[in-house]
Design brief:
By secondary structure, the protein is α/β, with parallel strands linked by helices. It has one domain. It has 20 helices and eleven strands. The protein binds zinc ion. The site of zinc ion has 7 residues, from helix 10.
């Protein structure tokens, strides 16, 4: 595992086995600091013997195959149990990203254990479990077994040993591909507003969907796993265009997807594809002008809002993208549950959820719970500092340019509900407070538990009744 995956100040929560219960995931040292009494109240629900031994908490850790190869399966499991009372493993089974499946990233200090070198020259990515070809007869990708660790089968080597220790095993996979290393990737690649193929997969492509379902079927049928977790750290074209994220942003957002499948889906929704395209190109030009230092006479925010008013198709296309991502949640959930209803299925929710109100609006916990047994909402407070600072610089460079960067940060503290004190300059080294973790956990708990009759739910119930009456 890399240094950050051992960082026990990270806290996560999992909604438990039943739809109504939400279990807080806290490392033992953090329990006393847990600000949410509801964590304590619900933690025992559905607890296994191992969870009971660990004080009723679901204590999970993210770990990639390379850690087991470097240090030995038993040794790593010993370490987890002895040092941190871990009772659940989030095993990075499929990804082309080094963030969860590689060793420590270059430039970061090496951990105090394991191989004392980076793997930037040897990391490949792909599937770190054996590929059972019967589940992939007609999928677009054939050669996706990760070769960098020989024939080490992550699930085959770890799941039985974890089970004998009463530790749960979750298959964690990511929406990250390497177009250079994955034959046929270009066929499922997203297409941007200018017609260029990108390095990201289109979530509406039927071949991609078939592949994801095949992975899930393979793991659930071939191994005695306890759960599945998928992570997609991506968002739609509106948020990308305005730099509403904490990654590197140079004023050139990825405005996708305009592939044939997305265009068809847009048409089905009654959205004018040409109007959407025109709107995004205008938005892109607005961002480029902002980066060139031009200030519209009405100011940047007013001009941004005017573009949305003139092209509401921009928002419709953003919604189409987010709905497509959530359809993948439904696909994975349905596939896993259809094979084994006891397998828990849930999602890694991107850290951007903590920084961007635009992205946060799209992560409706109540809606997400319809197709999930748990949510793992990223709320790392240490790296939250530099990430929030980067997000603020990005979003300030586009729609909030009228204000100062500090004013932009103050506004975000206020509207996101944080009472943080750090200035933009202090944030990268100070990080966010532990209180931020408690607040985000509470907000998530409230979101999934919100049992009030919302008007949207009432309307949905009405529609279902109508359908029943008609048929
Ligand atoms: Zn598409």
């Amino acid at each position: 595992m890399n240094d950050s995956s051992l960082d026990l100040s990270r806290r996560k929560f999992l909604k438990g086995a039943t739809a109504a219960s939400v279990t807080g995931l806290l490392a033992p040292g953090d329990v006393a600091k847990a600000a949410d009494p509801e964590n304590q109240a619900t933690a025992s629900q559905g607890a296994t013997a191992s969870q009971a031994a660990a004080g009723g908490k679901f204590i999970g850790i993210q770990v990639g195959a390379v850690s087991f190869v470097d240090e030995g399966v038993d040794k790593v499991l010993d370490l987890f149990q002895e040092k941190a009372r871990v009772n659940a493993l989030m095993l990075a089974v499929f990804t082309y990203g080094r963030g969860i499946a590689g060793r420590q990233l270059p430039g970061q200090p090496l951990p105090d254990h394991g191989a004392q070198e980076y793997d930037s020259n040897t990391f490949h990515g792909g599937c770190y479990a054996a590929v059972h070809t019967q589940y992939y007869p007609d999928t677009i990708f054939k050669d996706f077994r990760a070769p960098d660790l020989g024939d080490f089968d992550l699930l085959g080597a770890v799941v039985p040993k974890a089970k004998s220790r009463r530790m749960r095993s979750y298959c964690w996979f990511e929406d990250v591909y390497n177009p250079r290393l994955l034959a046929n990737f270009e066929k499922v690649a997203e297409v941007d507003v200018y017609g260029r193929r990108t390095g990201q997969a289109c979530l509406n492509h039927p071949e991609l969907r078939r592949f994801l379902a095949a992975l899930v079927e393979d793991w659930v049928k071939s191994y005695d796993v306890d759960g599945i977790m998928w992570g997609s750290e991506r968002q739609g074209p509106l948020n990308n265009a305005i730099g509403s994220h904490h990654g590197r942003f140079t004023g050139r957002g990825r405005i996708t997807c305009f592939c044939e499948h997305c265009i068809e889906k847009g048409r089905e929704r009654g959205v004018s594809v040409e109007r959407a395209r025109e709107g995004f190109i205008e938005l892109d030009q607005f961002v480029r002008a902002a980066w060139a230092g031009e200030r519209p006479s009405d100011g940047t925010f007013v001009t941004f809002w005017r573009i949305l008013l003139n092209h509401p198709e921009i928002v419709a296309w953003e919604k189409l993208w987010t709905d497509s991502q959530q359809e993948i949640y439904g696909l994975i959930y349905g596939t896993a549950k259809g094979i084994n209803n006891r397998v828990q299925v849930g999602w890694h929710i991107w850290h951007n959820n903590s920084f961007s109100p635009f992205y946060r609006a799209e992560q409706d916990y109540w809606k997400l719970r319809q197709t999930s047994d748990f949510l793992k909402v990223v709320s790392y407070n240490n790296c939250g500092g530099p990430r929030l600072a980067e997000y603020i610089r990005n979003i300030h460079s586009t729609v909030f340019r009228d204000a100062s960067p500090e004013e932009c940060l103050a506004l975000h503290y206020r509207i996101l509900g944080y009472e943080e004190k750090s200035s933009l300059e202090q944030l990268p080294t100070a990080g966010l407070s532990a209180d931020y973790v408690a607040r985000e956990t509470k907000r998530a708990l409230a979101g999934v538990r919100d049992s009030e009759m919302r008007l949207a739910n009432l309307a949905a119930a009405g529609e279902s009744l109508k359908e029943l009456t008609i048929t």
